[in-house]
Amino acid sequence: MEFGSFLVSLGTSFVIFVVLMLLFTWLSRKSGNAPIYYPNRILKGLEPWEGTSLTRNPFAWMREALTSSEQDVVNLSGVDTAVHFVFLSTVLGIFACSGLLLLPILLPLAATDHNLKNTKNGTDTTSKGTFSQLDNLSMANITKKSPRLWAFLGAVYWISLVTYFFLWKAYKHVSTLRAQALMSTDVKPEQFAILVRDMPSPPDGQTQKEFIDSYFREIYPETFYRSLVATENSKVNKIWGKLEGYKKKLARAEAILAATNNRPTNKTGLCGLVGKQVDSIEYYTELINESVANLETEQKAVLAEKQQTAAVVFFTTRVAAASAAQSLHCQMVDKWTVTEAPEPRELLWQNLNIKLFSRIIRQYVIYFFVALTILFYMIPIAFVSAVTTLENLQKIIPFIKPIVEITAIRTILESFLPQIALLVFLAMLPKLLLFLSKAEGIPAQSHAIRAASGKYFYFSVFNVFIGVTLAGTLFNTVKDIAKNPKLDMVINLLATSLPKSATFFLTYVSLKFFIGYGLELSRIIPLIIFHLKKKYVCKTEAEVKEAWYPGDLSYATRVPGDLLILTITFCYSVIAPLILIFGITYFGLGWLVLRNQALKVYVPSYESYGRMWPHIHQRILAALFLFQVVMFGYLGAKTFFYTALVIPLIIASLIFGYVCRQKFYGGFKHTALEVACRELKQSPDLEEIFRAYIPHSLSSHKPEEHEFKGAMSRYQDFNAIAGV
């Protein structure tokens, strides 16, 4: 990419961001748009904005974001969201401190050398073609064996040390944040429960419920409360889903009747398009009565006959539950597997009955499948990144040559085509990875999202970073390599491809933070969809709420996306130091925009109390490790005699990761007893805690008449137990 095209891309992205930000400041002041721009506050009963919409400062969102405290984020969006901001601020600190030293030192050193000029004149040539003015500010312009390479080696040490400092500080902070949340005096159901899996078959004459009750009463006679045995709910869930759908349709029909004074009708066939014409209210009322009867019959059958070898076990105190969750209950590790219970809303009931060894086999099979996916995805991504350069497109599609020779069209295509093609290609993957993660037998939604996030991160690194870096160069020079397959030819090829891919990634990062965060802030697409649904589709308040409900921050894609930018910035921070400015802008602007969204827009769908952080920490270290390896190879390609001095840093990164895991990870895997022993402000309602875990499809429509016998054991006091 030429320097002019890069400036056009950067300028266009900036203008789009400014336009989107101005749209946000205008649209967010209109009361009719409040459900799109302030849903979090509305759901919590708070005022959407301070003062009136007519006098509100158009830039007040920036002030509110900057002045908000971490406790504000925890109160409105939970600990997981606060931990995400620790991640953003930590990376911002790493790049800011690195840039303060590297930019004023490395940029002048690179700009005043003449390696690329000599290459263009024909000496030390590795490939044909032109070079961008931006390459003069990169390590590519440093002559081989130059003493200036000492400064670049020192930069690798500086970035590594800064990263170690900020990561250690962040791990301590997140550990404290998690402990404070778990020490809360509020009653939280998951702190009184454990998840039990891999239960053996009960002895003859005992039900699964009686077996698990007797087992835990014997071990915890004073603190065991009761158990909820998992059941096979696929059929009852289907009936319940249909019942809820009929209720919504009945409410919709009644709303139409109230608005028009005409009784609505519908056809009973496929999608309401064919079949007999019937009165909607009478039809759905009849279906609801029929479904309720079917649901109650199936509930009784499920609770009595479809019990599984897993359960949620409840205790009377938080300390007892925390102690039980980290204790070995059976001599055989594949029996009575016990872990902390997830929140009721994130429990994946369909996975609880999967046995230990089956989970292990599933995990390795899925890892193998993901590895194949990475390899096979790399082929089309490499093809897309190589083909979507204008030079290669003209080779493949000759008839477009007259079009791309038009200066304005050529500039726009060079600026955006490869990046947009790559973003669209990557958008197809997250749902597949989340599905595969759940297929491993993971019991909680947050755990599945962490697993999917990890897969997506490694996929992005291998396919986006490595694939794009090498693909374009290999596409053009494969014939030269075939004719002269010498090691020095390949090393020179890799050495020149790294810095010359920097302009692509500079544009990629700018596209992500200007246009990506501009769309995030303005919420233009959700706004349009909401108003279209509200006008033409929604008839009831429930339908309107469903139309504007925002969802959560989507950690499964957001975290690996941020980590990809982190990896790119790390790996090019010394080779092309200018990228540090873009990395700082990305994470700084991201912190500001997402702070606003966390305080006003997104509603968390679960709370794991910061368990995402160890995974984020591990992948930041993986990105640092990759950066150090890349610099080891690139300094070697520059024939720098002291390249081996990078090796101690690689070893230090491994040791640092091990020390952090040994010191901090235990507090994330389990709840420390000193945390769980804090007093509550009121005595817990154990019956309410128990009922929080009952699946919706098993909740009775007439709670006073349905006792949930079979899978749900009743609590008995210690004296009664002792008398049995």
Automatic annotation (TrEMBL):
The keyword Phosphoprotein does not apply. Keywords: Calcium, Ion channel, Ion transport, Membrane, Transmembrane, Transmembrane helix, Transport. Pfam families: PHM7_cyt (PF14703), RSN1_7TM (PF02714), RSN1_TM (PF13967). Residues 191-351 form the CSC1/OSCA1-like cytosolic domain. Residues 362-634 form the CSC1/OSCA1-like 7TM region domain. PANTHER family: CSC1-LIKE PROTEIN ERD4, PROBABLE MEMBRANE PROTEIN DUF221-RELATED. Belongs to the CSC1 (TC 1.A.17) family. The keyword Membrane applies. GO terms for molecular function: calcium-activated cation channel activity. It is found in: Membrane. This is Calcium-dependent channel 7TM region putative phosphate. GO terms for cellular component: plasma membrane. Its main location: membrane. It comes from the Eukaryota. The chain crosses the membrane at residues 6-27, 85-107, 149-168, 364-384, 420-436, 456-478, 563-594, 615-634, 640-660. Residues 5-169 form the CSC1/OSCA1-like N-terminal transmembrane domain. InterPro entries: Csc1-like (IPR045122), CSC1/OSCA1-like_7TM (IPR003864), CSC1/OSCA1-like_cyt (IPR027815), CSC1/OSCA1-like_N (IPR032880). It is a multi-pass membrane protein.
